[in-house]
Amino acid sequence: MYLEPGNLSLPYFSLRPENFLYRIISAFGYQDIDFGQRPEFSRRYILRGQDEPAIRQVFNDRVLSFYEAYPETCTDGGGNQLFLFRSNYRIQPQEIQSYVALGRNLLNLFPSF
Question: What domain range is 30 assigned to?
Answer without folding.
Answer: 2-109
